[in-house]
Amino acid sequence: MKNLFIYSLLLFCVVSVKAQEETQEVTQLDAVTINYQNDILSNVDDDTFLVREEHAGEFSANPIKFMQENFDIQSYISLEQDKSNNLRHNDSYRVKFSTNKGYLEAIFSRDGELKRTAQNFKNILVPSDIRKALYSNYKGWEMVKNRYTASGTSDKIDKEQYRIKLKNGNKSQIVKIVPDRMGSDIVTLE
After folding, report:
1. Confidence (pTM)
2. For residue 10, what is the enclosing H or E element?
3. Contact 163, 140 (CB under 8 A)
4. Do residue 133 and residue 182 come from a single domain?
5. Which residues of 123-138 are buried (b: 16+ CB within 10 A; e: fewer)?
6. Per-residue pLDDT tens for 91-103?
7. Is residue 21 included in any domain, yes or no?
8. Which parts of the chain sit beneath pLDDT 50?
9. By the 8 A CB rule, do 175 and 138 touch?
10. Are 113 and 133 spatial neighbours (Cβ–Cβ below 8 Å)?
């Protein structure tokens, strides 16, 4: 009797699986284009875009490259011209990309050419060569804050600087590092 019940249960499972396989249909879906940009940037106001947190580290590592890969200036210019009903054309467009750690501000020409950039970030991961220089020159000191500022023309950085606050016990010190002059000097401020 027990064997009959087990065989009946097994037969029922096989028949159920076979019936389910026969009733399943394959549905062909149409191709869908996903605009990845909307998942990365959200428009806060007319010229400010918020970079979503899951992409913030990627943004602060190289803000200009991130902007170039994830922002379509031509679409932005078209939208701005549509808003003004083509009555006027701006000489330039200012766009700002922000996270909770800082921002990149970019100025574009009326044709969409990148003219100038300005960056300001706080408490970001500093490059490894700067970390190594700090470690070798300030043994026993701990980085408690940092600020990175940069500006440039087009997609090149012309001027950049790190201001790093170090602590060692009850002593604190601010170190200014200009990456272009790494190795020649590290300027210490009081």
Report:
1. 0.70
2. helix 2-23
3. no
4. yes
5. ebebeeebeebbeeeb
6. 899 999 999 999 9
7. no
8. 29-38, 87, 190
9. yes
10. no
